[in-house]
Amino acid sequence: MIRKGIRPRIRPVIDWPFTGTAWRAVYPFRRHWPAIAIVLVLDAVFLVPAVGALREAVGGWAGFESLFDLVFAIFISAWLLGWSIAPLLLTMILVALLFGREVIVADRGRLRLFIGLPLIGIAADYDPSRMRNVRFERPPPKSGKSWRGAHLAFDYGANTGAFGSHLDPVAASGLRNRVEMVTGVSFGRGEAEPVDLAGQWEPNPILSAAADAGEAVDPLTEPAAPAEPQRESRLASLSSLALIAANLVPVAGTVFLGWRLSDVMVLYWAESAVIGIFNVIKIAMIGRWAALLAGPFFVGHFGGFMAVHFLFIYTLFVEGPRSDSAGDLTEVGRLFADLWPALVALAVSHGYSFFANFVARGEYRNRSIKDQMSDPYTRIVFMHLVLIFGGFVVLLLGESTPVLLVVIALKVAFDLRAHWREHGKQKKVTDAARDESDP
């Protein structure tokens, strides 16, 4: 949904009750005790496994001696991180049900509507001279505003707002008159001025500035781009060339440095970790405040997946299935140290693609957190299925350089295909959003 017109200034604030000459009215949320009891029970149910996992995680980190011990500690910590989102949310809901409130702060030429807990919450600052059609409303049951009960609604540019809760007509009229008196403004009526309807709400001004610095084309305001380039031009794009160049490093390592299958498999596992790190940044850019919950949840399930995945690769392709070793951590560290040039090249390649496509081309627009959280799995799972299949072929045929190079070539081909599909799909979404916004 694209919002237009003027917007309030919304930000987290500390609601200090001593506001000088400003007038304040506090409306505590109504306590729904059956709902509070249900949330309390659910919170306790989710907290019990979390406490047990925390004990195991602390014990795991306190005394790991092998790769298996380290993977267990990482996995249980990642599981705990993802699982903890549920009791954290339930606790936040419980606290809001018990102590939540709305605070109206009015002063000369200013109106602030605050929702949150005592002292901390989210505030929206409005210019009362641009508020119109303030009216008494009773929301229908089970609607998005039913928690307010009867309240005052108003128009602000092309959008609406509300303040007050569980008011009767007399109280609503008194609240309106008091706000008008304190602010020194009489609320307007009728249609908004054209200037109040102009412009679109930018999802994130910081990201917009980053895109402008990269001379990006705003997909919602600029003319349509040419048709999707053919494969030849996609292959010649800088991000595709950077991806190919980064994958030439393991080719050089295989030909000139004698890299084995185990080195290649560990390297591409590390590339998956790089993809996950950039995905956390993408989630933060898309979700902003919502990323405070979505980011740790992604790190939890992706971190657990990566830990078990590495143990699988190490057991099959580094130590071998017949080995009874639990994994020497010194050898694991040496394995990664020998691969650092290729790791840097892959990180630079994905970093360039991130800035050139996701930021500069504005791909963060029209993306949802849900889609972004699932994106890495689509690419990583199929990529590693190709690698594992190729790895078994190498084990059967012997670790000859030509066979290993074929596996690397298959991986590069899959990488390019996934890269083109990802950015091509995002281009279609952007084009559709632009067409929808055109008059």
UniProtKB/TrEMBL annotation:
InterPro entries: DUF6498 (IPR045466). The keyword Transmembrane applies. Keywords: Membrane, Transmembrane, Transmembrane helix. The keyword DNA-binding does not apply. It comes from the Bacteria. The chain crosses the membrane at residues 33-52, 72-100, 238-259, 265-285, 297-317, 339-360, 380-397. Pfam families: DUF6498. This is DUF6498-containing protein.
